[in-house]
Automatic annotation (TrEMBL):
<keyword id="KW-0472">Membrane</keyword>
<feature type="region of interest" description="Disordered">
    <location>
        <begin position="530"/>
        <end position="561"/>
    </location>
</feature>
<dbReference type="GO" id="GO:0003677">
    <property type="term" value="F:DNA binding"/>
</dbReference>
<keyword id="KW-0812">Transmembrane</keyword>
<feature type="compositionally biased region" description="Low complexity">
    <location>
        <begin position="548"/>
        <end position="561"/>
    </location>
</feature>
<keyword id="KW-1133">Transmembrane helix</keyword>
<keyword id="KW-0539">Nucleus</keyword>
<dbReference type="InterPro" id="IPR001138">
    <property type="entry name" value="Zn2Cys6_DnaBD"/>
</dbReference>
<dbReference type="InterPro" id="IPR053181">
    <property type="entry name" value="EcdB-like_regulator"/>
</dbReference>
<dbReference type="GO" id="GO:0006351">
    <property type="term" value="P:DNA-templated transcription"/>
</dbReference>
<dbReference type="Pfam" id="PF00172">
    <property type="entry name" value="Zn_clus"/>
</dbReference>
<dbReference type="GO" id="GO:0008270">
    <property type="term" value="F:zinc ion binding"/>
</dbReference>
<feature type="transmembrane region" description="Helical">
    <location>
        <begin position="655"/>
        <end position="678"/>
    </location>
</feature>
<protein>
    <recommendedName>
        <fullName>Zn(2)-C6 fungal-type domain-containing protein</fullName>
    </recommendedName>
</protein>
<feature type="domain" description="Zn(2)-C6 fungal-type">
    <location>
        <begin position="39"/>
        <end position="69"/>
    </location>
</feature>
<feature type="region of interest" description="Disordered">
    <location>
        <begin position="1"/>
        <end position="29"/>
    </location>
</feature>
<dbReference type="Pfam" id="PF04082">
    <property type="entry name" value="Fungal_trans"/>
</dbReference>
Amino acid sequence: MGDPPATPTTSASVDASPSVASSSSANIRKERGAIAAQACDTCRSRKQRCDEQRPKCGTCQKFRLECNYREPIPTKKDKTLVEILERLKGLDDRLLSLETKVDGLSHQGGAGPSAQGFPHLQTPEYGNQGNTGMIDPALTAAAYNLQHDSSRNAPVGQDQYKYVSSVHQMLGWPAVQQLFASIQGRLPNVNFSSLERDGVSHMLGVHRPESQGLPSEGTLRSERPSGVLSTLTWDNVRSWSQAYFDTTNLFYPILDRQSFMQETLPTLFRSGFSNSISSTIALLVFALGEVSLEGREGAPVHVYNGRASGVRGGTKAHPPGLALFNEARRRMGFDLTECSLENVQIFALASAYYGSCFYPMDFWRMTASASLAFQALVTSNPGELSSPRADLIRRAFWHCSILETSLNLELGFPLTGLERMENTVGLPTFSGPFCEDDVISNQQSHFQEHFASQIVLRRLLVGFHHALNNTAPMSAQLGGVPTPFSSANNSPGLSQLTIQQLALQLEEWRGMLPPHLRWQEDCPGAFPNTTSDMFGGSSQTPASTPISPSMSHASQPSSLPAVSTPSVPLMFTTDLDSPPAQYPYVLDIQVALLRSRYYYTKYLVHRPFLYKALHYPDSVTQDDALGAAECLKASLKWPVAMSPTCKHKRLVPCMFFFTQNFFGILVLLHLSTTVPLLRRIRSTLCGERFEMDARETVGLYLDWLRDLKPIDAGTAWHWEVVRVIYGLEGA
């Protein structure tokens, strides 16, 4: 390896980095970061640099002086984060109150809860609240001569609103099973009868040969184990590292950029890579950095009808960064039992790499290992939560917690017990020293506020899951959240008003977002709001503008008819054939993740209404029909499936989570075109744009599955089913 520069520095722009434009960086206002506020009082009074060591800095140790640190004065960005986290505490209190009331409702039998039971909330206006009668008879099953098994009718309010959190459970609904039975003859290689027993393995393609693990050698068979390390240059490692911190570390803010770039990287480059844990972390960073570069600029893995795949770089067998990742894998065994933050980081980074290569089981196992490593860290050394790295540790905790929740609710993977540490660990504040690159990336992408908002949404989702399952709060359970395999899914307390109250809580979350993260509810692809921020800042945020001025308005599909509402500039588009817009610091993916998870939560909360409409149509009320309409609308046009985000699929975290849900939505949207009651709900309650948006959604989600099927074993199974449902056997 060549020698690094005598004084390596991190710059705001690296030529090889795809996510930073020098032209846009030049005019960015340099907001003062937290680094200056961390100097001790002695160094501050002497106007000299403080090394920020705790409990005493180097100067105070040298001169035996008392060393005191004052709390940093929050910037506008800090105030926004504080406000988000304070509102989180308020929402937690309301969720606890809601869970308590829902638990009491379970003893009231079939009658739905009264609005008087929730004095702090108002009932959402799903319809005329004075009309508690049945839906217009013209909407009932009888009016369409719909064959319905009356033996399935249950007393109103009991078992008619069935909640399940996972797609593979939803596939067990009788209406879905009836659909599958009708197409079984055209799918001789698919065994629908085993879905209830083997749902997860089917959905993930675990038993398919192509789902086997990554090859253990490098990208070339003749490559010697040490070959990749002998060819590293300073430009290589700096480029990979910068690419990692400009992409992956914005989704998973678990590494300190300043420490890594200014200390770890130069030291390793000079002394060489050993079996140390810092070498392992560096190699994982390099591997993910190569994924970031190739995932945006690499060659597509295939082309379909002239449309390049959204999966770029490498192949299924040899993804980008494999040689570097294998070097890290060879060293991970030396660090398996170390109780340290670095131990948590290596598992979390390995999980991110497996996710980019479409290996969901490996992704889960590394995520679980990171969670267990975190518990070992805090249990063996609780003082770390008050150390200078405390905020970084908290970020690692919430990263693991968000992923665990997704894996548990969607796939039924067991929890590790991490959730029991929430109160002990506390919330991150992004305090601590930051380098200039951190400040710039946050100004352009608001990644800290995105992460904080994801934490709030995850807490809400867990609370909703408890309420819909009518189970005790997580903190009261020894086993954590009941998995989708538990018996709590049919709750006699689940009712119309319960679901409506949860929907209102979700709207509170949306209203809580900073203005520059908000968007128009009925336009998932719109730019974030550009009104002035909470504290009187600029009316235009850098995060609202694409790099290329020519792409300031993302292309709107030509099929859109004229509508009466004003046109909205689009950040995301359903036009998958035009060149995608380019945004700095993967802003589009950060925005798409936050919005898509919001729509997912809304869709999940309202899905019990859809179950009732499918299975008990003669009992459907006006509010039930409106709830089913909300579910259908919430399933449409998730931004993660639109351009430009879908053009960089290797960079989308936990991608198979969205693949599962797109498959489930495609099944339900098809049923909504064949079941008369749902067809009427679509045409009368979903709005004038619904049919067009639904067609575009089907096209987006089908394209997502078609694109991934050659390299993801689970998606190949999904595609076999939906191509028959939608008459695409020749595709």
